[in-house]
Write a structure and sequence with these properties.
two-stranded antiparallel sheet
Length: about 350
């Protein structure tokens, strides 16, 4: 029971410390992972505490404790103490079984302990033989003038469950952190792959005579007609909604770059802000230059991805080579030995 109380106290201290700013937990996993950690630990520890409370054992049995006799033999384990000094655990089989003699080659200390256990079991058997009760089997409360105390054995299932839930909660933190890292990497790749097409389309619209705001609206309207969801175009739609709600163009473009979080999009947002501040005299040239650089980066990225795909295909290719060699060589070997 003490283990469960300690776990609750530690969780309470960590939670209070993180809320009050005494303990910094921002670098440990993700917010979602930390919440799941608390839920798993508290739920597992609560269930473990209930198991320990109900089946934890160590309960002192009353004098003359009785056990129900049944047709099929069964065995019960008890902790026994004599005059308050715990002597160990004994197994009581109901009905009684004949006690086996121990080998003489065992250590002296073990022989002494086992002889005492054997004598105790013999006394319990003789005690119940005197009572001659066909329905119940009794545990005596004294032996040779010494008081006997019987306890149910301790069950560590609740403690084990609490420990396992803590380990599972730690795994939850690791798994959620990896999932978020994969999601960020996937988002970064998608933004990078969409940037060349986005910047080229925007450049064509501006060079055709549209203002920056109208170009954003046009791109947002074209994207809404498509069913495919892309992060970059979702941010363009959000920027259009912000401008329609009263936010200034400059602030909307700045927020667009920050939400995307990619260096290329921040550069693009900076170009748009500079266009509002200094005019659009060289806007077309800068956008065209940015578009060319974006396509060059896209080509380099595609080349790297192609090389990575080739490396991943080496193992299946080797397996296929082994299968082909087996198909070719097996008939030849069979005909040779045949």
């Amino acid at each position: 029971m003490w283990l469960h109380i300690v776990i609750f106290v530690i969780v309470l201290v960590l939670t209070a410390g993180s809320i009050l700013g005494w303990i910094r937990v921002e670098q440990i996993g993700t917010p979602k992972g930390r919440k799941l950690f608390l839920v798993v630990v508290l739920a597992g520890n609560t269930i473990g505490m209930l198991l320990t409370y109900t089946k934890g054992g160590g309960q002192l049995l009353k004098d003359g404790y009785e056990l129900k006799r049944e047709e099929d033999p069964y065995e019960e384990k008890f902790m026994v103490s004599m005059e308050g000094e715990e002597t160990g655990s004994v197994y009581i089989q109901i009905p009684e079984k004949e006690l086996e003699e121990k080998d003489a080659g065992e250590p002296e200390e073990l022989i002494a302990d086992e002889k005492r256990e054997q004598l105790l079991l013999e006394y319990v058997e003789s005690y119940n033989s005197e009572l001659e009760n066909p329905d119940y089997y009794y545990l005596p409360d004294n032996w040779d003038g010494k008081k006997l105390e019987w306890k149910t054995p301790y069950d560590n299932t609740g403690n084990l469950l609490a420990a396992m839930t803590i380990a599972a909660a730690l795994m939850v933190i690791v798994i959620t952190a990896r999932e978020e890292q994969k999601a960020r990497a996937k988002r970064y790749e998608e933004l990078m792959m969409d940037y060349p097409g986005l910047i080229m389309k925007f450049t064509l619209l501006v060079q055709a005579g549209m203002t920056v705001r109208n170009a954003f609206r046009k791109m947002a309207a074209d994207y809404k007609r498509k069913k495919e969801k892309r992060i970059a175009y979702e941010e363009i739609v959000t920027a259009c909604y912000e401008m329609e709600s009263g936010i200034s163009e400059m602030e909307a473009y700045r927020r667009f770059g920050e939400r995307c979080g990619h260096v290329k999009y921040k550069t693009f947002a900076t170009l748009l802000i500079q266009n509002l501040q200094k005019g659009s005299r060289h806007m077309g040239e800068m956008l065209e230059k940015e578009s060319v650089e974006a396509w060059d980066d896209r080509k380099r990225k595609a080349k790297v991805l192609g090389e990575a795909a080739t490396t991943k295909l080496l193992v299946p290719m080797m397996l296929m080579l082994g299968v082909v060699m087996a198909i070719v060589m097996l008939p030849a070997c069979l005909s040779f030995y045949g």
